[in-house]
Amino acid sequence: MIYNTYELKKDAFLNETRTAIGRIDDETEAIVEIDDLWDQRFMELLWQYRFKDLSKETFLDALKKQTDSLNSTYNQLYEEELKKTDLSFDIKFKKNLHSVIVFDTISNDTVFPFANHDRILKFGEDFEESEGYNVSQARWQSDYTRQEDGIEKTFEFMVRTKDRMNISQWKRIVLGRMAALLAGSILLLVFVVGLFYYSIKNLIKQKKVADVKTDFINNITHELKTPLATLSIASKSLKKKEILDSPKAFESTLGILDRQNDRLQKLIDQVMTNSLGSEDLVLHKEQVLDHIYLTNLIDDFALSVQSKDLNIARAIETAEVMLRIDTFMFTTALFNILENAIKYGKEKVTLTISTRLKNNHYEIVIGDNGIGIAQKDIHTVFDKFYRVASGNVHNVKGLGLGLYYTKQVIDAHQGAIEIESELGQGSKFIITIPVN
Ligand code: ATP
Ligand code: MG
């Protein structure tokens, strides 16, 4: 497209210049006069060549001499006229004679042959024939009569002429004229590519969000189904006569109802609280001593784990540090990490929990020996509802809310959380919160 435009612009440019130059040559009176004078002398010389035994060399020599004598005037006139036009660039212009044929009754005599490189400069500034463009070319046939000793002598001749121009900077000029178009095209291209990129990115993002939502729905329905099924069986069995008759069976069925009810309630609470963003969290901070707080927390956690073989190595900062935290939320946040270590751990879980004081920051590092998190997932695991696809979604239950909540709580404490992990090697959660 751009190349075509370039060709079109080039043609338009050359045509414009051609017309303007042609006009100078045809319509400037002084130039036409000098041109006629040259022609007049030329025909005179040709007549002598035809009838007076003037040799070819002398003829051509004389022609050259007359060009030499008239050309400076011609060039001056041309320059003056060129300045009057709006052609503000350097244009060389020349008029050439390409062939001269004198007709005879017996044979035609070509004074000057038809060949591209052979030419006589009539007017203008000479340049290589291969450079430049045609302005016009003509072939004219005429006769010339002169009296000699009272006798009229006539001969016929034909001349082929070519007017050519040479514009040294035409490429720059044409490109200059195209600059706006080029810039526009490039801008448009950049814009389209940008738009395309943006759309694709958005599409991928939306697809991810949709996938995550579907996963969440699947997970939550799965979680809800079990207690609901149990509830429905229990309530049906309550209507049975044998249960109604046995107070013990009745009691135990009621217990099932209660527990399932609790489970549902907890599930809904989990979704409600864990979905809160850091700006929605209202912190009730209190002062706690790091040693006491963390030891209690770890003990409570160790006690709650029964499913797996758990071993916890602790290295709590020796200096006593006062922490200002919302203990309820902070405990849930840490529990979420600890629970994950069990959920995504091997049969034997080894946890290392170490803390230290590091220039006004309290750092808690929780390391596990679990399945690890791939580099690409390290930042997304903090997203709401995000669960690692290969993370055994079907084997390990979860809503993808735990780490989201943890991050929100730590953010609300002006802290930070980072993960270092390698697949198959285990993960390290590094939490820092400011202390004053
Ligand atoms: P829940 O809302 O019940 O906590 P969840 O455990 O799936 O569900 P997150 O705690 O937010 O959700 O964890 C997100 C995902 O990060 C998990 O699904 C798991 O794939 C991955 N993950 C989290 N902790 C670990 C860990 N210690 N080792 C390996 N993968 C982990
Ligand atoms: Mg979790």
Can you describe what's shown?
By secondary structure, the protein is an alpha+beta fold. The chain folds into two domains: 2-177, no CATH class; 201-434, Heat Shock Protein 90 (2-Layer Sandwich), CATH 3.30.565.10. The protein has helices spanning 2-27, 29-51, 56-84, 170-238, 241-245, 247-274, 290-304, 327-343, 402-412, and strands at 91-103, 109-112, 120-124, 133-148, 151-167, 286-289, 309-315, 322-325, 348-358, 361-367, 416-422, 426-434. The strands form three sheets. Strands 1, 2, 3, 4 and 5 form a five-stranded antiparallel beta sheet that branches. Strands 7-9-10-12-11 form a five-stranded mixed beta sheet, with helices on one face. A two-stranded antiparallel ribbon has the order 6-8. Helix 4 runs antiparallel to helix 6. The structure holds adenosine-5'-triphosphate (ATP) and magnesium ion (MG). Magnesium ion is lined by residues 336, 339-340, 398, 402.
